[in-house]
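User: Here's a chain of 311 residues. Predict its fold as tokens.
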Amino acid sequence: MTIPAPSPSAHDPVRWLNHQPYLLLSLTALFWAANIVLGRHVAGHVPPMTLSCVRWIGAFFMLLPFARRHLARDWPVLRARLPLMIGLSTTGFAINNGLSYWALQYTQALNALLIQSSGPLFVALWSLILFGVRLTWAQFAGIAISLAGVLTIILRGDLGALAGIRFNLGDVMFAGAVLSFGLYSALMLRRPVTHPLSLICFTMACGAILLLPFSVWEYTTGFTLKLDTMTVVTVTYVVIFPSTLAYLFFNRGIALIGPNRAAPFFHLVPVFGSAMAILLLGEEPRLFHLVGYVLVLAGVVIASRSASAAA
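Assistant: Prediction complete.
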């Protein structure tokens, strides 16, 4: 006999948040937007592969006290699905993060935010190739409207600026990272049935192990972590927010509404990124910011509210 899960309660904020997929995915986008801005800010100061490895080691040990008993119970299930678990760790943790931080050594945060907005297209592509999951017309329209909003923000309302964008090695690498994360998002449909903490802790630990050889190589080149304020702030932020919380929130969001309905929230990353530029870098708010925000949010609402076979 299956015991029904208790309904979320306003008196239990954690349980309530656990049943709010749109809020969880919006917070994920916020944390990842700040991660891109920060990653670009520390480029050349913090080694990217080492940062990726330390990121997952730190997040793993943060969650381990809460996940230990779940890991012990779920280990037989995880071991039985080991190839899939390694695939999730490789695509969503090792390749995605290593390439992202490495790419930010060579490209601007603006370009990275633009490329990040293509995430829903990669999720839809992998879902179609692997599982035959097709976008509904409403989801397609939502993605298109959101992408129009992203372009409005990044191009500052001037379509002529599109011709001035030049893609370099960093842009190609970041696109590879987004492609890898799209595969991770699609594969999450086939994740084993375990406690969320078991899944996230296993993939974090496996991702860190996969990144370790690259961190060692980085160390041999002389590009090492410097124990200073910038490094401490960077590591602290990436361990807590875009790593521990964002992946927990993202995985829960997919579990609640499916990858295709969750994918449009990728478009909130450049929206939040531009907002940070206004607040932190002193850029003046303009009409194109408002137009872009409205388009992105409209696209997210249209796509996320539509029915999906992936839900």
